[in-house]
Design a protein that fits this description.
286 residues; alpha+beta; Jelly Rolls; Arc Repressor Mutant, subunit A; 2 domains; ten-stranded antiparallel β-sheet; 10 helices; AraC_XylS_family_regulators; transcription; transcription regulation
């Protein structure tokens, strides 16, 4: 499972008998993920090749047998770190799911997260890939059990309470307000200068504050937010062409390009997986 092949392939889906957890299993060579963030957690077990992950603290190189862990709302990128690309199995558990597991199986309290972003842990890698295998086989008991075992292991070994983010400075308040305005005006966003003027600050001051708060500039954050909203609309069955207009992309090709750079699969493949009854496995070829 997860062996290196000659083509890129990916499957992003949800097994409806796993609690609030998306799954991505893929092999990428040329594909690169744009700056983006998730509402929940990322637990990526690399099974072949090398993945380069860009995080606020720098670029990490993850080889086979390693696990990449990213906390909610942390901006990141990903690309191949070797000519053969990389293969991995990724879990995206929600904040609610991780909190429930932590409360039952660890002494961690409050909002929990991972204190380390990259670890070499072949056993955790095995557990994550076995969650995928069980889900693809429709084995709900095994998938659910191993998901909880994997998350518990990672939290006990590498977890801790996440610091509470407080918005104290004027720059942080402006960044938070800019985020709200971009969400409100997603289909017709202001320019950086217009946004800064409305907030009573300068464009470069706002840019710096926004990057410090959200890990990426406003335009990159807006693209990620548009894709996030597009996912919700696609899950509701809205056609991709209509989704593109609804979230502010120029047309369906623009949606497709940005969607794949953030989610890892095309919008059509994503929508088909959400509409499918999850019983048997199978990769959607990229």
């Amino acid at each position: 499972m997860g062996g290196m092949g000659t083509r890129e392939w990916a499957r992003h889906w949800r097994y409806d008998r796993l609690p609030d957890t998306d799954l991505l299993r893929a092999r990428y060579v040329r594909h690169a993920f744009s700056p983006h963030a998730h509402d929940g957690y990322v637990i990526a077990a690399v099974t072949g090749g090398v993945e380069e992950v860009g995080l606020p603290q720098g670029v990490l190189r993850a080889g086979a047998g390693s696990v990449v862990m990213i906390n909610p709302e942390v901006a990141h990128t990903a690309r191949a770190g070797a000519a053969e690309g990389w293969a991995y199995a990724t879990l995206y558990p929600s904040v609610r799911t991780v909190a429930a597991i932590a409360a039952e199986t660890t002494s961690l309290r409050g909002t929990v997260g991972f204190a380390e972003s990259l670890v070499s842990d072949p056993e955790a890698t095995r557990l994550v890939t076995e969650v995928h295998r069980a889900a693809e086989q429709g084995d709900a008991l095994t998938a659910d059990t191993l998901l909880r075992v994997a998350v518990t292991r990672l939290l006990r070994l590498y977890g801790g309470p996440l610091p509470t983010r407080t918005v104290r400075t004027a720059g942080a308040r402006n960044a938070a307000r800019a985020r709200e305005l971009l969400l409100e005006r997603m289909t017709d966003p202001p320019t950086l200068e217009e946004l800064a003027t409305e907030l009573g600050t300068g464009p470069f001051s706002l840019l710096r504050a926004f990057r410090e708060r959200y890990g990426m500039p406003p335009h990159a954050w807006l693209t990620s937010a548009r894709v996030h909203r597009a996912r919700s609309l696609l899950e509701e069955g809205v056609p991709p062409a209509e989704v593109a207009v609804a979230v502010g992309f120029a047309d369906q090709p623009h949606l497709g390009r940005h969607f794949r750079r953030v989610v890892g699969v095309p919008p059509g493949a994503y929508q088909r997986e959400r509409a499918r009854t999850y019983k048997n496995g199978g990769a959607v070829r990229a």
